[in-house]
Automatic annotation (TrEMBL), chain A:
Alphabetized UniProt keyword annotations: Dioxygenase, FAD, Flavoprotein, Oxidoreductase
Cofactor: FAD
Domain of life assignment: Bacteria
Presence of keyword Flavoprotein: yes
GO MF annotations, alphabetized: dioxygenase activity; oxidoreductase activity, acting on NAD(P)H
Species for this entry: Lutibacter agarilyticus
GO cellular component: cytoplasm
A Pfam family that the UniProt record links to this protein: Reductase_C
Domain called FAD/NAD(P)-binding: residue spans: 11-310
Protein name, per record: 3-phenylpropionate/trans-cinnamate dioxygenase ferredoxin reductase subunit
Domain Reductase C-terminal: 329-412
InterPro entries found in the cross-reference section: FAD-oxidoreductase/Apoptosis, FAD/NAD-bd_sf, FAD/NAD-binding_dom, FAD/NAD-linked_Rdtase_dimer_sf, Reductase_C
Automatic annotation (TrEMBL), chain B:
Entry similarity comment: Belongs to the adrenodoxin/putidaredoxin family.
UniProt cross-references to Pfam families, sorted A to Z: Fer2 (PF00111)
InterPro entries named among the record's database cross-references: 2Fe-2S_ferredoxin-like_sf (IPR036010), 2Fe-2S_ferredoxin-type (IPR001041), Adrenodoxin-like (IPR001055), Beta-grasp_dom_sf (IPR012675)
Gene Ontology biological-process entries: P450-containing electron transport chain
Domain of life: Bacteria
Ranges annotated as spanning the membrane: none
Cofactor: [2Fe-2S] cluster
UniProt KW Iron-sulfur keyword: yes
Domain annotation 2Fe-2S ferredoxin-type: ranges: 2-102
Protein name: Ferredoxin, 2Fe-2S
GO MF annotation list: 2 iron, 2 sulfur cluster binding; electron transfer activity; metal ion binding
Amino acid sequence: MAADTSLDKICVIIGASHAGVNVAFSLRREGWEGKIVLFDSDPEVPYHRPPLSKAYLKADDDSQLDLLFPKQNYISENITLCLGKTIVEINKESNQISLSDGSIQKYNKLVVATGARPFIPPIKGIDLASNLFSMRNFADAVNIQKAIISSEEKRVVIIGGGYIGLETAASLRKLGAKVTVLEREKRVLARITAPEMSTFFSKLHQENGVDLLANKNVILIETSEGVNKLLCDDNTTYTADLIVVGVGIKVNTELAENAGLVIENGIKVDSNAKTSAENIYAIGDCTYHFNPHYNRFIRLESVQNAVDQAKVAAAAICGNEVEYDAIPWFWSDQYDVKLQMVGLSTGYNQTIKRIEDNNEKCQSVWYFKDEELLAVDAVNNGKAYVLGTRFIKAKQQLDKEKLMDVSIPIKQTSFLKD
Amino acid sequence: MTKITFVTSDDNSITVEGNTGNVMELAVQNKIKGIDGNCGGVCSCATCHVHVEPKDWEKVGAPSTMEADMLEFDEKVSDYSRLSCQMKVTDAIDGVVLKVAK
Ligand SMILES: Cc1cc2nc3c(=O)[nH]c(=O)nc-3n(C[C@H](O)[C@H](O)[C@H](O)COP(=O)(O)OP(=O)(O)OC[C@H]3O[C@@H](n4cnc5c(N)ncnc54)[C@H](O)[C@@H]3O)c2cc1C
Ligand code: FES
């Protein structure tokens, strides 16, 4: 079906980050001739988020923000970027959105790309803590950096041992901080990887001087004269000049929910990124979407998902419907280690770990559900990552005995069944 | 200024100029179709894969181990594959021709 993409049509996008910006540029590629207006409450020209906790945070010089696209590309593609503007309401009956400054913007097509915000756990005293930060946007990274530089003792406690907490720990070590990570679960990265990987990352951080502690549930923060004392439920206490909270996110679904869109663990969309409301699409971290390969609805927090859904939505808006069908992938950089993950490991009942050439820092964990390879986590091992991706996509049956045998090098045909 | 020519999958040839950053960034700035640079240039995604014209291979040079590992089993690999985010824009690569991998 040909869609009306003509000049007088307006596509409005709420959220100008990985998802929102990519849908804007993809719309032009798909032939959208009408107006494109992008809104974000963040005042910065849209940037890559992953480096915030990685390269950007640890750089001691005034390094540049990694822009998603240079400023002039918005001009040349005729994309109107409205930064520092917050949307407070979607009115789907009158096809318009309202801004916090009282102004109104009409749309013919609307894309909700509102992402997520850090979840701040209800710990007693957390609202009065000194130098407490989350890590989601440019301002957070700048504020953490400033606080570290001006702190004499540089004692940092990171609440939460997920990938953002661990990357922040690694980067702050580079800046000379004394870092303690308090994880409530019995291991770090519990939500995203197998115990083998958690063990590897615990050791890596300990070798790099991070005090990494599991089973630590913070229940109280007491602050006086700029110094925080964190109390855990096992009666241990930790002192911090600076606290970084990294315990997960809350999806920004309120706008969509108030407009009456179907919400289910995120904004529910179909395989063309359409929401339950006509002419409204949703993409990125804020969506609950169907993954054909794993045959279930999921919510993802990743650049891959934001970019791939953006392309699908842009195509659908221009009437060239393509189904969203991607294998999730993700990466994390900590010290000299690059972790690359592909697939979804949820539901696995067996893992196979390989260490190449006796080098702990080159390993991979392969997740199986019976005979099906679900996911691969690769540490400094691009080969395992790329080959794993191909095997998962093709639902390739593998010979697990061969995969376990590290004397057999990783090759296209090494692990195939005879 | 360093001149680089990209040939896209639909055989369009586009010559662009730059003097800083990496080749992926230059391609994104110039809207080269097929170069996405999704990981922001940290050798994690391979959405910046190009095939160097054989005559220019010497100028460009071979990939690092990390990059070679990402390329070895890529479905689009050739003998002249590089990840363009790992190539710096410098005088040394002036005039090279890069085909977007397909
Ligand atoms: C520190 C950090 C490191 C990360 N590292 C990795 C990594 O290594 N690899 C990876 O794949 N992913 C990583 N991620 C996750 C990745 O950044 C996200 O998945 C991605 O940013 C999602 O893009 P998005 O556009 O859907 O949402 P977001 O990036 O959350 O953007 C949503 C935007 O919407 C705006 N917005 C929301 N509500 C409103 C409103 N009412 N009015 C106006 N604007 C609004 C927000 O200001 C925000 O800019 C990382 C994230 C962080 C924070
Ligand atoms: S941009 Fe991701 S590998 Fe080059």
